Amino acid sequence: MDHRAYIAERIAAEGVTAEELAEIIAVPPDPSMGDYALPCFKLAKLMRKPPAVIAQELAEKFVPDGVVASAAAAGGYLNFKLDRRALFAGFASEFMEGDISGGLPYGASDEGRGKTVCIDYSSVNIAKPFHIGHLSTTVLGGALYRIFKYLGYRVVGINHLGDYGTQFGKLISAYKRWGVREEVEKGGIHAVNDLYVRFNSEATEEMEEEARENFRLIESGDEEANRLFEWFKSLTLEYVGKIYDRLHVSFDSYAGERFYIDKMQPVIDELKEKGLLVESRGAQVVDLEAYDMPPFIVLRSDGASLYATRDLAAAFYRKKTYNFDKCLYVVAYQQNLHFRQLFKVIELMGEDWAKDMVHVAYGMVSLEDGAMSTRKGKVVWLEDVINRCVEKAAKVLEEKNPDLADKEDVAEKVGVGAVIFGALYNNKIKDIVFSYDKALNFDGETSVYVQYTCARCASVLEKAAALPRGDMFAVEPNDRELELVKSLSAFPSAVRAAAKGYEPSTVARWCVDTAQVFNKFYLDCKIAQAESDDARAMRVFLTEATAACLKRGLGLLGIGVPEKM
What we know:
With 565 residues, the protein is an alpha/beta fold. The protein contains 21 helices and 12 strands. The protein has helices at residues 3-10, 18-24, 41-47, 51-61, 84-99, 135-150, 167-178, 181-202, 205-220, 223-247, 264-273, 307-322, 336-348, 382-400, 407-424, 436-439, 447-464, 479-489, 491-500, 505-524, 533-557; strands spanning 36-39, 68-74, 77-82, 116-120, 154-158, 277-280, 283-286, 296-299, 326-330, 357-360, 365-367, 432-434. α19 packs antiparallel against α20 (505-524).
């Protein structure tokens, strides 16, 4: 049960919806004050009354029930105390209904039934290795994919491949001049990239003209040119596929820019028919000056299309093919203007589904030394970051538990998890400075800490497996048990909030917060050696539920959980 939402539904505040009230209900810093509190200061202007008067009036109107035991005014706050037994029983019932009785897993829902969400993320460039700048779009999109699926939506993951442009003509020229097939096969995508870099460093005007001709050959269907292009593409997908597997990311479509070449003209024709295309310095554009944006260029002065043109065609194709309810673009914030223009053009074309297009912007990732991507001349390949994190994880695990079985598998889960969590823990729009040491801290706000908590739960459950259990509903939860129940009860709302705000960090923070609450519970409450069979039953159940929910939360982020660490 979402207790904030439940309390909000019970409050009749003038001019304020239950949803708005739920968003401002907080947990008091001192548990003796109550389990939840409504700060009435935010209602004072709306209701034109002092906060203390609002709190008192709401308290007098409130009728306790089997969930909320009391509501009391304290200055400008309205504090609520929950019925401890009812709180535990409600959570236990919800958890067991899904995880034990075969219903939807706890935290999942069918709210998305009959609805489709398209998510465009990662968008790998053919013939270029992944650098660390690709991390956020890949793991953020992957997390949103899993979160929306968990809520019952039909989700379409789209990898909009960068597979069109004169750079492929350059690559063919470079390969024909310096490439050796056996060496390229052996070196894979990095060997292909080296050829491209060499071409750019040595290119003459004659070579540039040759590259343009090679690209023209690709477009015209030349057999040899397309055979080479498809080979470069296969090398790229083989390379990125291994990284995607490690990051637990998958796609339903790899339709890239090239796929939309023959789908642009109908959209261009429609723009012309609706009088939206105008000429500007020889180019065909949609004038957006009235909306404080520069022109949206559809065709260059030489008649060539741009990636913006292909994005426009892709949007119409996705709506026609998938009939989406939402179409998300997980792309860095530097493309804010492009997506504002794209969505506005679709709106001007009279398509009401323009409102369902969402740019999920995110900040940049760099390492502590400032290295980020090829744009600053410092190439940091994503695979190198993952490998180094796994290697460091193996060393840390060796120091902490030299007798640990399956060390390689555990190190992979810990290291890869640290990379993913490092990109997802903070609000997506923030720039991130990735630190290996911080990411692998067993005591910090990290995936390692949450994974270790799961391993601790597994150890506790193993020790308690043969011990008798009584009736877990026969005892009233103490403060630590109640705190854990409330934290676990918040998991479904954390998942829903992550979907609503396109913000997986909500789930990541819930995982850390709940792990912290469990570890306090673990230190203060004897579990296997509980004072009674009834108390043991409750604590073992809470440990089982914690392990299940934390594993599920990390799983939504794409992070695996070792049984032992």
